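A quick aside before the break. I want you to see a complete sequence-to-structure record at least once, exactly as it would be stored in a machine-readable document. Don't worry about memorizing anything.
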Amino acid sequence: MFKPENLWRVAGLAVFALSLTFASGATRAADVPAMKQDVKPVVETPAAAVPQPQYGVAMHGTPKYGPDFQHLDYVNTDAPKGGEIYLADAGTFDNLNPFILKGVAAPGTAGLLFQTLMVGTSDEAFSEYGLLAQSMEMPEDRSWVVFNLRPQAKWNDGTPVTAQDVVWTFHTLMTKGHPFYRAYYAKVKDATAESPTRVKFTFTMAGNRELPLIMGQMPVLPEHYWKDKDFSKTTLVPPLGSGPYEVDKVDPGRRITYKRVKNWWAAGLPIVRGQYNFDAITYDMYRDETVMLQAFFAGAYDFRLENIAKAWHTEYEQKPVKEGWIRKEEIHNSLPAGMQAFAYNIRRDIFKDPRVRHALNYAFDFEWSNKQFAYGDYTRTASYFDNSELAATGKPEGRELEILKKYKDDPKYKGDVPDEALTEAYANPKTSGTGRDMRANLSTARQMLEAAGWHVGKSGVLEKDGKPFKFEILINSNAFERWINPFIANLKRLGIRATLRFVDAAQYQNRMDSFDFDMTVATFGQSLSPGNEQRDFWGAEKADVKGSRNIIGIKNPVVDDLIDQIVSAPDRQELIARTHALDRVLLWNFYVIPQWHIDHYRIAYWDKFGRPDITPKYGLGAPNTWWFDARKAAALQDKRKGKDGK
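That is the input. The structure line, written in tokens, reads:
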């Protein structure tokens, strides 16, 4: 899910704090030229093949919902409007403009206040349907795209949304927005308002199937509102949007409340029917995870996505749960797990050698930590696309082996594809989980470090060329501390001095934006249709761009070329094969020490809400498809008063 307000959340806070938005769609980022044989020059479309307007589009194949669909399958169209919901987020905020690099945006701003041209669903891999746009047009080679705006689309001050707003937004995001957008729309040659309701994006290339869809994900902003304001500066003045909510109250850094827009222009559209049901949505901010959890049990907020296994198993034996006032559930999902890991900054000299990076994986005793801290809940991650068909498993064969061999046999890519990527199945080091058999793993690590030139000096610390092996692990969530300290202890046994540094959200963001760290805990979320965003994660051209998501600093020509291949994949099967190849190259270069994942949500909520019968396959549906149930809320209030003796 694309959440512009959380672009900076690349590590701990992203894992342990849910900033719920109401936006849909997959995250998309930079685009790059595909391989020459896959990219065709842009040519004029023959008159006989003039594209026809489409209500929706799929990355591959056809959209699930037909042109006459009335609503999504996972909503309740009879859901009542009203009531309010209180949510929580970790950290702070100082900005209501989620589209710039400066400041920390308040949770919810992008998804609640602003709308995109098209919008995705949570039960398809990657399809989009018209939102601000009623239709789109594009040629077979997808070298351009036209969006036809809905005549009834309006800003919340009653002003029509126009094609000029779209063009202005594009140029503003490219020049003043977060660096993410310059990558995201890198292959857009031009944006033109052909009429008040018709806008065309022309691309610098053809054959990139994803480009029209990522343009559909572009948030649209009102030119008339921003014309006398500095878009590049942070602001706490509620901005004008076209979305279902507007800012009601702001307590900077502490709380923000949104209120539902009365007579919202899009309320009757099939793509949004049954959604945005609460009259008010409030986010409270917490700087401490423990305090935030206890505030939930005290009734300070209503819904919690629990990402800490120990807390799930030990902290919920509280009165509201025992009495049934709080519902506690586990809900399976089919989302790619992505990669959560100890991420190296390979710009640092000590981490440039992949043998060193590989060696340190042997110092992380996942099996023991999983038992001690997570009640065995987690699965060790062994792919950048785990929990999906996109994950490379076993030894490479067939088409993916063919792709890898092409690079291995090309002198241009000498050393960029490890031999093991073609011959072995990737596997993390394992232990029994008893804590008694780390000696063998540490012995292996020591041999690998010695082969890389690191030897124990007089001080007992590993040294190379007179420099000691020491580094800092930077985090912004204390929930990781109990996992990291045993890792540090094992590193110490190897002669490595690692220290843990905890900083607040703002300082963490600044240091990550400028790549001022040695190692951190990072998350690289993946969609079911990987594409242009891979460039921002791993692309060489993003490695030195401040604020990019290539925090690791990867500059690998094979990785770059594989991303091009993924972007230009002609069908689903080829996309899978090319993604498998990328997965193996990333894994066998040991850019991270993989951590863990689960294949289900752990949620808890006060029992005063209704929810649809169907939970979407690729999303939780909460809270945008839930609603306030007045009967349940009254019953809950009576129970609490009765039990409390009030």
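Two observations worth writing down. Residues 1-48 have pLDDT under 50 and may be disordered. The longest strand covers residues 188-195. We'll return to this after the break.
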